[in-house]
Amino acid sequence: RKLVWFGLNNNGRSFASGSGEPPRLVEVLGQNLRPVEILLEADEAVKMTTEDDAVLSVQKKFYSALTTGDREAMASVFTKDQATEVSEVTGSGGRIDNWDACLEDGARPEDMQISGSDALIVSPEVAYSTAVEFPPNAGIDSATLLAVQRWRKEGDEWKLSLHQTIPWSPDSKAGGTLLCSCNGCVALTRGKDKRTSGGIVG
């Protein structure tokens, strides 16, 4: 069987279609399915199952390590294998910022808040979680990031395979995305004529 897909925006208009490979859903959300109202830090999470709670517990550990600069805790959250999405960028010449650089004072999002965490257990070995990030000093009240994490079960523990964020706002389309794996983060930004990589966004 061959996958065939098409997308409709909030107005019911088609914005893209394809066959074979599935679309990159985070980029689709950032470009074409933006939130219809401003997201709030006080938004409550939905009720979860026990396994969902296990994933979100590790998600909290990830964000704690990210905002406090705890390198040891960050290493314990991730799998040991670099995510394919990150390897594709570095294999094409993109720059990766390792976690030592990402967690330095002044580089990490120390005062960032998250809200609306959710989890989806796809199989006994694979799960996804989402959250809305509110970066510090964003400059405008509606500046938010949509974060998606992919998890892999290793023994009795959920380990983070990929963390991705994309600007997600009612007012503007996303112009870049951040991909993080066990060894650091890569950033992709899109211009009119070319795609570039390197550095941290958001």
Automatic annotation (TrEMBL):
Q: Which InterPro entries match?
A: NTF2-like_dom_sf (IPR032710)
Domain of life (superkingdom): Eukaryota
This chain's protein is named: Uncharacterized protein
Q: Which organism is it from?
A: Minutocellus polymorphus
